[in-house]
Design brief:
The complex is a heterodimer of chains A (about 425) and B (about 140).
Chain A: H1 12-38, H2 53-67, H3 70-76, H4 87-108, H5 115-120, H6 127-150, H7 158-181, H8 194-221, H9 227-257, H10 262-271, H11 274-296, H12 303-330, H13 339-344, E1 408-412
Helix pairs in contact in A: 2-4, 2-7, 2-8, 2-12, 3-4, 3-7, 4-6, 6-7, 7-8, 8-9, 8-12, 9-10, 9-11, 9-12, 10-11, 11-12
Chain B: H1 9-13, E1 19-21, E2 27-29, H2 39-43, E3 50-51, E4 70-71, H3 77-80, H4 87-94, E5 100-104, H5 111-118
Antiparallel strand pairs in B: 1-2, 3-4
Classes of the chains: A mainly alpha (about 425), B alpha+beta (about 140).
């Protein structure tokens, strides 16, 4: 390679690029600081939408980190020599993306300063805990793999470490998909299909990131990909995109097959406001079909079409992640499955009568459901300026007859009123 | 409200073990090891957990809270440990509503166990088979 190319590092463009990167990092850190000072509430987080935009970025970076190792894996594991010169770039991008994703996740924690707690307290029934190990293991493994790629004396170990990194990244992406797949509470998730879906998506997102980074380096160092490699990568990106579209379709069709999930699918794909728009226009059309057209149409080939396809793939990735993570949480939890039908019934009982406010004897805000928290007992009345006084303290009843209470429970007494949740 | 499940998904998913279940079945959050990842909020089918957004002042030592941590109904465990009942049950009784009954389901002689044996009651989301400790009538 022409060594004079490196002289470009001294040009003003290099420092401009460094400054832009530093500015972007500074904005990110300021955003994280604002969130720590003002609270997560400024992100729009609620008890319904628990994970928001930071998770969209974090999961993208982590999943793409797995996929960006494609080029190195094809070289080391599948013995394709044409890919080997780009394996170090592939490994370096993997480390950068993984580090970025983990940093976003860390800064989004309610207590990021307790990182040491997360690193020393493991609950092995938690998929999150597995992922802490998977992410740190991936980082160590790829760092070692990169070392073997760059240090000639260690090159005999590159194959073994490359194979280990290849297997590890598949497990890592499975683990990331399983974060959602193991959730029984949220109807939009809770399917084992998410594991293979995340693997396929990682392959296309990571390859798109690699192609963009390589294009930037090409513009910098005049080191383009050989045409044959370009052709192979174009086919690979198309294959991964088609696989992602197929598995996404299977996931939604599987969900829609169950009658109780139909309303959810209608929300995600048709009536859910921005989420169907992002899914159909953002992911399927712009992030899936259009890149496929650019990659495989006989009149649209070439490096520019490949780059455009990579950019569209990334745009589609963010659209899909937003619709999946935030749209999936926006669907309300079905806590009282029988309540809507009962409420719709003509024989449904009348709504509950609020108890009288202790201050003004009118309907009060204390008409909480039977499962209300203790704080609702002293809630303020909307028509009364002074808060309700706390309930009088009664003498505690005698302890239970059993020496040790093994299970405790409360029971709502029969009542003609029902709470419409 | 936390249903204090016998098989609580929040405990399963908590990466640090901050969500835990006492021997008597009460599900709690350890404020000192909760890192605020909110995975328990994602896993709870009852939307029973909340994130503390604001700084907490004038704390009561028996019910510690922490900004950036997740919390939920403790079933007034500090009162139970002193032989008392949850504050909501006490307030409901004081108002004369008698809508809440509290006791030991495993003690067949308790008023609660006898009531459950005598009358129909149902947990929320029984289909998930989490065995919640809270039963409802009239749903």
């Amino acid at each position: 390679m022409d060594r004079s190319a490196y002289a470009r590092r001294d040009s003003p463009w290099f420092w401009l690029l460094v400054a832009a990167g530093a500015l972007l990092t500074l904005v990110g850190l300021l955003a994280a600081h604002a969130m720590e000072v003002e609270g997560h509430v400024i992100t729009g987080m609620s008890n319904q939408i628990v994970w928001g935009l930071p998770h969209v970025f974090a999961i993208f970076l982590i999943v793409a980190a797995s996929g960006v190792l494609n080029v190195a894996s094809i070289g080391s594991v599948f013995g394709q020599a044409a890919y080997k010169p780009w394996a170090p770039l592939s490994g370096l991008l993997c480390l950068a993306l993984l580090l970025g994703g983990l940093l976003v996740l860390l800064l989004d924690l309610g207590r990021p300063e307790r990182l040491v707690v997360a690193a020393t307290h493991y609950n092995f029934t938690s998929v999150f805990a597995w992922n802490v190990l998977l992410y740190s293991g991936m980082f160590a493994l790829v760092a070692g793999y990169l070392w073997t790629l760059l240090e000639r004396r260690w090159q005999p170990y590159a194959g073994a470490l490359g194979l280990a990194a290849f297997v590890w990244r598949l497990v890592l992406t499975t683990g990331t998909g399983s974060i959602f797949a193991f959730l029984v509470a949220r109807s939009a998730y809770g399917t084992a299909l998410l594991a293979p879906l995340f693997i396929v998506l990682s392959l296309s997102w990571g390859l798109a990131v690699f192609l963009l980074a390589q294009a930037a380096l090409d513009a910098w160092n005049h080191r383009p990909l050989p045409p044959d490699l370009c052709r192979r990568l174009r086919h690979l990106l198309g294959l991964f995109l088609a696989g992602g579209l197929l598995l996404t379709a299977v996931q939604h069709l599987t969900s829609a097959y169950f009658a109780r999930q139909l309303a959810l699918e209608r929300f995600l794909l048709q009536d859910g406001g921005p989420y169907p728009l992002l899914f159909w226009l953002g992911y399927v059309a712009l992030g899936g079909l259009l890149p496929l057209l650019l990659l495989f149409h006989p009149r649209a080939g070439g490096p520019r079409a490949l780059l455009a396809a990579a950019l569209l793939t990334l745009a589609g990735a963010f659209a899909w992640l937003y619709a999946f993570i935030i749209g999936g949480q926006a669907w309300p939890l079905d806590i009282f499955p029988a309540t809507p039908s009962a409420a719709a019934s003509p024989t449904a009982p009348s709504p509950p009568t609020p108890p009288a406010c202790r201050n003004c004897c009118s309907a009060s805000a204390a008409s909480a459901p039977p499962s209300s928290s203790p704080s609702s007992a002293s809630a303020s009345c909307p028509s009364c300026p002074t808060p309700n006084p706390p309930p009088p303290r009664l003498p505690s009843p005698p302890p239970p007859s059993s020496a040790r209470v093994r299970r405790v429970s409360s029971l709502e007494a029969p009542t003609p009123a029902r709470w419409k949740g | 409200m936390c249903q204090h499940c016998a098989h609580p998904p929040c405990v399963d998913v908590c990466p640090t073990g901050a969500s835990f279940q006492r021997a008597d079945g009460i599900v709690l959050v350890d404020r000192h090891t909760c890192i605020g990842c909110r995975y328990c909020m994602m896993a709870c089918p009852y939307k029973a957990r909340s994130f503390v957004h604001e700084p907490v002042r004038d704390q009561r030592p028996e019910v510690p809270r922490g900004r950036g941590c997740v919390e939920s109904c403790t079933l007034c465990v500090h009162r139970l440990d002193r032989g008392g009942t949850p504050a909501c049950v006490e307030a409901c009784a004081a108002a004369g509503h008698q809508a809440l009954l509290f006791g030991d389901l495993n003690d067949p002689t308790s008023a609660l166990a006898q009531r459950v044996a005598r009358e129909a009651s149902a947990p929320l989301r029984a289909d998930l088979q989490l065995a919640p400790a809270v039963r409802y009538q009239g749903l």
